[in-house]
UniProtKB/TrEMBL annotation:
GO terms for molecular function: enzyme inhibitor activity. It comes from the Eukaryota. Residues 1-24 form the signal peptide. Residues 30-168 form the Pectinesterase inhibitor domain. It comes from Panicum virgatum. This is Pectinesterase inhibitor domain-containing protein. Belongs to the PMEI family. Keywords: Disulfide bond, Signal. The keyword Disulfide bond applies. The keyword Disulfide bond applies.
Length: 175
């Protein structure tokens, strides 16, 4: 094959590559013009969202952008619903953990009130202290990867460790 006969196929490939984006993808000016007309939406947000979506990027008119925007919104709503469902399940487990923690603390308070400091200390350090961190870990590592009660878990963890340390001081354990 001579070099001149190879030039023709290469030229065709280069021409196809050059015009293919115009054929396969809508004109970004449609996105830019549409976003510029939207007075209640930040322009950069609009362009960013639509440009990142293949269907919107391929749109050739406002109708195509509207269809893409509806689909983008439906996908995000479905994703948010999944996160909420995960959170409901995970928070339900945390609710059970905090219920167990309160029961353990009731036992601690009863033992403490009866002067059974060793029992109270053992119950506190053995059972009550792990619940806030367990809930935090569950929410962080769970399917939702969100922890809407991080602040509360952190405060409960600090408080239960404080109470446990004071009980340990009282009983002479782990001073």
């Amino acid at each position: 094959m001579s070099s001149s006969s190879m030039v023709q196929p290469i030229a065709i490939v280069l021409l196809a590559v050059a015009i293919a984006p115009g054929l396969a993808v809508g004109d970004s000016s449609v996105i830019n013009a549409t976003c510029a007309e939207l007075k209640l939406q930040p322009y950069n947000y609009c362009v960013g969202v639509l440009s990142a979506n293949p269907a919107a990027a391929a749109a050739t008119d406002v109708r195509g952008l509207a269809a893409a925007a509806i689909n983008i919104t439906a996908d995000k709503a479905a994703s948010t619903l999944r996160v909420i469902s995960y959170l409901v399940d995970e928070l339900s487990i945390c609710r059970g953990q905090y219920t167990d923690m309160l029961q353990s603390l009731a036992t601690v308070a009863a033992d403490f009130g009866a002067g059974r400091f060793e029992n109270a200390s053992f119950e506190m350090s053995g059972n009550a202290t792990g619940y806030p961190q367990g809930c935090d870990i569950l929410l962080f590592e769970g399917n939702s990867h969100k922890d809407p009660i991080f602040k509360e878990n952190a405060e409960n963890d600090l408080l239960v460790r404080l109470a446990s340390s004071i009980l340990n001081l009282l009983t002479g354990r782990w001073i």
